[in-house]
Amino acid sequence: MKKLLALFIILTIFTSVMSGCYPQSSNETLNVPVTSNSQDGSNSLSSQPYTSLLTPLSSITTPMTSPITSTVSTTTPKTVQTSETGTNSPKTKYDLTISVDGSGTTNPNIGLVTYDEGSVVNVTATPASGWKFYMWIGDASGSDATISLRMDGKKDITAVFWTGNRFTSNAALSGLMAANSVADAQQSLQSFVSQYGLTMEITNIIPSSYSKTYSTYSLLTDNDLQTLKTYGTLFIDEWSKYPIDWVTNSKVKSIAIVKKLGVNTTAPAVAAFPDIVGETMYYDDTYSGDYAREVIHHEFDHLVTFNIFNTWAPVDSIWLSFNPPGFSYGAGGASAYQSNNSSLSGEHPTSGFVTGYATTAIEEDKAETYAYLMTTTYYHHLQNWLFSDTDLTNKVNYYKQFISKYSPEMSGNYFDEINP
Fold it and tell me: How far apart are CA 93 and CA 114, in angstroms?
């Protein structure tokens, strides 16, 4: 009996011990004493919860928050640096450059304006009195006077105004704007000059002996298409001022549009060149604005003069009589390109002359006067000077009479009509 009692006691104790070592559920925890560092530097024991050994690793979502013993090291987590102010970085800004060709204004004004990236900018073109808005070119397109631009980069735009003269071909202009190549643009420009019996040469220029001797230039490629569209529009607007009989009597046969045009003997870069042997007017399409418009007519006058008188500078005592007493011309137009030239400069520098360049030679004087009669902006300058400049008035009236002999249509109010 005593042996049975002793065996019962041993089994009871063994069972009790075993039940304390192994939890009955995976949700149970046991408190394990761990060593931690106190603030005063001493070690103390504390009791922390610990996940049951029977819990699967895949179900553990929260790591231990404290090491089991003081010998287990911890790591410092990475931190994300932020700005001291906590504000966003400055927005990217882009420049919008607005220009005009012809006479008119824009809103915003002509010049450079800066906008935040992503801004939508409305730009409106307004023609001057007597002018019409034609189209936008550059980083904008279309014929609506008001356009909207999203500023996703630097942009340059130009509002093109024109006078819409009697010989303008809307079909040629539309075709020019739709051109996908220089060859296409040439075809559209050809449709315009055909009414004058002319040939447009851009991709197929055959230079004369005179052109080979005195000029240099490069042919346009499709990379020059946008520049050609801009210049082509300007050319049509200016050349359409001419009646057909005036062009016919000039004996010009073709128009050549090139780039990098120069004259070997005088200037490395010019905007136009008259070929008196090939009867061709060469124009450089990299020029723009009123200067390019004026040069179209100035150099054409040289060709007209040579073909009528067989010389660049015919003797003309009547014209000379209109100069101020004691005046003598300079060393010729070529001298104005020299660094040490002493010719006058600017507009209307003295009585009887529209520009300083006109004082260099009689042929340049006539060509400048003619070009001021033909170029709308400069025509209005000329009209203002005529009120008080008798010498210039005499020259203008004299040259108008000369022109009307070869083109009766260019008489009366013709110049007022083409220069509203």
Answer: 6
CA 318 to chain centre: 47
Mean pLDDT throughout 72-87?
A: 43
Contact 270, 262 (CB under 8 A): yes
Residue in the structure block whose two tokens are 């801004």:
119
Separation of alpha carbons 399 and 158, rounded Å: 35
**List of domains in the chain:** 92-162 (3.10.20), 165-298 (no CATH), 313-418 (no CATH)
pLDDT of 33 strictly over 50: no
CA distance 131 to 100: 12
The dihedral sign for the CA sequence 238, 241, 244, 248: negative
Cβ proximity of 136 and 160 under 8 Å: yes
Residue length of the chain:
420
Entry pTM: 0.69
Burial class for 10, CB neighbours closer than 10 Å (0-12, 13-18, 19+): exposed
Neighbours of 85 (CB within 10 A): 6
In DSSP notation, 7-73 reads: HHHHHHHHHHHHHHHS-SSTT-EEEEEEEEE-TTS-EEEEEEEEE-TTS-GGG--S--SS-SSTT--
What's the half-sphere exposure (Cβ side, CA atoms, 13 Å) at 336?
18
Confidence bin at 172 (pLDDT 50/70/90) = confident
User: For residue 331, what pLDDT band results from cuts at 50, 70 and 90?
Assistant: confident
199-201 and 254-263 strand pairing: parallel
* Contacts of residue 257, Cβ cutoff 8 Å, sequence gap at least 6: 189, 200, 201, 202, 220, 228, 231, 232, 235, 282, 283, 284, 285
Give the count of alpha carbons within 13 A of 226, CB side only: 10
Cα separation of the two ends of the chain: 140
Regarding predicted confidence, which is higher, 86 or 246?
Answer: 246
* β-strands 111-116, 93-101 pairing: antiparallel
> Tokens at residue 6, please?
């002793």
The conformation of residue 343, written as its DSSP 8-state character, comes to -
Calculate mean pLDDT across residues 88-100: 87
By mean pLDDT, which of 100-109, 190-199, 288-297, 381-390 is the weakest?
Answer: 100-109
